[in-house]
Amino acid sequence: QQQVKQSPQSLIVQKGGISIINCAYENTAFDYFPWYQQFPGKGPALLIAIRPDVSEKKEGRFTISFNKSAKQFSLHIMDSQPGDSATYFCAALKGGSQGNLIFGKGTKLSVKP
Amino acid sequence: ETGVTQSPTHLIKTRGQQVTLRCSSQSGHNTVSWYQQALGQGPQFIFQYYREEENGRGNFPPRFSGLQFPNYSSELNVNALELDDSALYLCASSRGGAGQETQYFGPGTRLLVL
To answer: Is there a contact between A20 and A75 (Cβ–Cβ < 8 Å)?
Structure first.
């Protein structure tokens, strides 16, 4: 049973465009939702995170939109750049779950010049 | 860079052997979590160590074990290696405690089991 479903699997965007990656979750006990960026051969790097009491959070070109009733959240990358080409993972964590981040399967983003 | 370091960077073992992977947590962090990332997949939680004790475990068999030391560094040990154990092993450190969920990942150890 996949607790966090991520789409699309891959995404191609032109430089300057908006990249949108979506995630859906099932467990309403999740209360922390981070997004990670991973380059080939590297560990995941935290981009931005949100809690369910907030509907949107913005940090630079990265925005998380959160819809608690639909149990969905998404990452928007504004003004996408070739350097943003990487794999992006959404994740979710239950309060008090001793660090058990549940990851989506990832989205491979390619930003074309 | 997160300040989380892992060693070695790459490792090749044969089926049935044992392996030990090491992780140094970021300064000020007392909690280490280990994850397994198969090729093309998201990381999967193995277990977490807090104050030198296992503090949560994912769906991994007992041949996956760990340690945490007084300086909060950690080891992951895998016995009786299987071909499916080939993966990137990631450790992540965090401050621990309520409201301190943010986990910072190291670069990983790439393990190949032949």
So the answer is: yes
CA proximity to A1, closest of A34, A23, A26: A26
Q: Calculate the alpha carbon distances from A22 to A47, A92, B32, B113 in Å.
A: 15, 13, 28, 34
Residue from the list A46, A93, A102 with its beta carbon closest to the beta carbon of B104 = A46
pLDDT at A99: 73
Q: What is the pLDDT of residues B63-77, one digit of tens each?
A: 999 999 999 999 999
Chain B CB contacts of A93 under 8 Å are 101
- Residue A42, both tokens: 């590297």
Asked whether B105 and B45 are in contact (CB, 8 A), the reply is no
> For residue B57, how many C-alpha atoms fall within 13 Å in the half-sphere facing its CB?
11
Beta-carbon contacts of B71 under 8 Å, excluding residues fewer than 6 positions away, are none
Nearest residue in chain A measured CA to CA from B59: A100
Phi-psi region of B95 (alpha: psi -120 to 50; beta: other; left: phi over 0): alpha
Q: Label residue B110 exposed, middle or buried (CB < 10 Å: 0-12, 13-18, 19+).
A: middle
DSSP A82: G
The number of C-beta contacts closer than 8 angstroms across A and B is 67
Provide the token pair at A75.
């990452």
Note the pLDDT tens digit of each residue in B24-47. Answer: 998 888 999 999 999 989 999 999
Do the beta carbons of residue B105 and residue B4 sit within 8 Å? yes
What pLDDT does residue B105 have? 95
